[in-house]
């Protein structure tokens, strides 16, 4: 299985050809790519909304502040979600 | 029966095509049916734009512009723009013939999200023989233009007995043109491919080797290129979950506006009548029409599907394949090992695998000529 560790200093962004969009039928956020649609859960949605040039640790920090959540638990969630999205080639890490 | 929401529309905007591939999935009778008269000709740009808006309102998120060769229509970029205006993800499924710099830029500026470019093989001689036209070099040029314009590129190879042994070279070509993904899809036997099956179906030995090549390449290129290898289903023992179920996720609109649950249904299932976007709203056709409801859900299933634990997984396989092989679209797909008609598939496999004297000749696809809107 292809899997890389997610570094704190990496800059995640949507992979080329992937579009994030609101689905008017369900009001959920989806990722669109050639021949596919993925419906995002709330965690993935909140993370991707913050993939705007920030690093992984900056994203974790921002989420912790916005949701008043535990930093360590959040960091694990963010890394797992990003690793999953990267493995499906929906995001790139720079 | 309540209808789910569709996800993707396949817009077959023309059956015209500069190539003559013997495995084309277009109906063999596209030339002789109503398509050739002006009155019943291709949908106009305004009609397509209405279809696109109606599809988005139904919940469709993706549109594939296909054909025929969609570049044969000069309003393609306008249709892409119309699809982007209603937030559809736009994919162009093309041979690349006709894609010059000007048109690549028009399409990019219209917001085209991605291109799937077909190749017949990895090298000119065999590719051009399969296409029945000098096309390979023009495809390579098209790939370079698409990459230069920054549009994400996928390749598609239709695999059959004449090119399956060149899978490694096809994967190499995918790397060379820097495509992000590649479909290595064994020909499925509908349309022209059904007519030419004896010349196209690979041998068991070829299929086994190709699967090994694809699996190894998948591992080697993981994270770099997505490889989708589609098996020839005659060699499977369980049917493919065709369309993820009839009338569940996909709809196709053909060049003259007939709305099909599957692009091959119009020729494979002659006793189904299809509605047309010129006389009915897309929403009504999707939800209410006989053609979309006939095989929706599981109520229509005969045995052995009706009591099969797989019925919500493979949906009894492919209706078109059942119709083409058994004459009844409601039968279990004969690829299934539980189908009472599996012997029909085995007989075809036996013919291919028991003799080294295989049919080599195929009939090239011919093209409709009088198609203008």
Distance between the termini of chain B: 37 Å
Number of helices of chain A: 3
Q: Please estimate the helix content of chain B.
A: 25-40%
**N-to-C SSE string of chain A, H for helix and E for strand:** EEEEHHHE
Q: Please tell me what the overall shape of chain A is.
A: globular
Which sequence of strands runs across the widest sheet of chain B? 7-6-5-4-3-2-1-8-9
Oligomer: heterodimer
Mean pLDDT of chain B, rounded to whole units?
93
Molecular structure report:
The complex is a heterodimer of chains A (94) and B (373). In chain A, strand 3 and strand 4 form a beta hairpin. Chain A starts with 11 loop residues before the first strand and ends with a strand. Chain A is globular, with a radius of gyration of 13 Å. Chain A contains three helices and five strands. In chain A, the strands form two sheets. In chain A, strands 2-3-4 form a three-stranded antiparallel β-sheet, with no helix packed on it. Helix content of chain A is 38%, strand content 20%. Chain A is an alpha+beta fold and 94 residues long. The model of chain B has no long low-confidence stretch (mean pLDDT 93). The relative contact order of chain B is 0.15. A nine-stranded mixed β-sheet of chain B has the order 7-6-5-4-3-2-1-8-9, with helices on one face. Chain B has 15 helices and nine strands. Chain B is of the alpha/beta class. Chains A and B meet through strand 3 of A and loops of B.
Give me the secondary-structure topology.
The complex is a heterodimer of chains A (94) and B (373).
Chain A: E1 12-14, E2 19-22, E3 29-33, E4 36-39, H1 42-48, H2 56-67, H3 71-87, E5 91-93
Antiparallel strand pairs in A: 1-5, 2-3, 3-4
Chain B: E1 8-12, H1 45-58, E2 62-66, H2 76-85, E3 89-94, H3 101-110, E4 114-119, H4 124-131, H5 136-148, E5 153-159, H6 167-176, E6 181-186, H7 191-195, H8 197-200, H9 204-220, E7 226-230, E8 250-253, E9 259-260, H10 265-268, H11 282-288, H12 290-293, H13 311-314, H14 319-326, H15 342-354
Parallel strand pairs in B: 1-2, 1-8, 2-3, 3-4, 4-5, 5-6, 6-7
Antiparallel strand pairs in B: 8-9
Helix pairs in contact in B: 1-2, 2-3
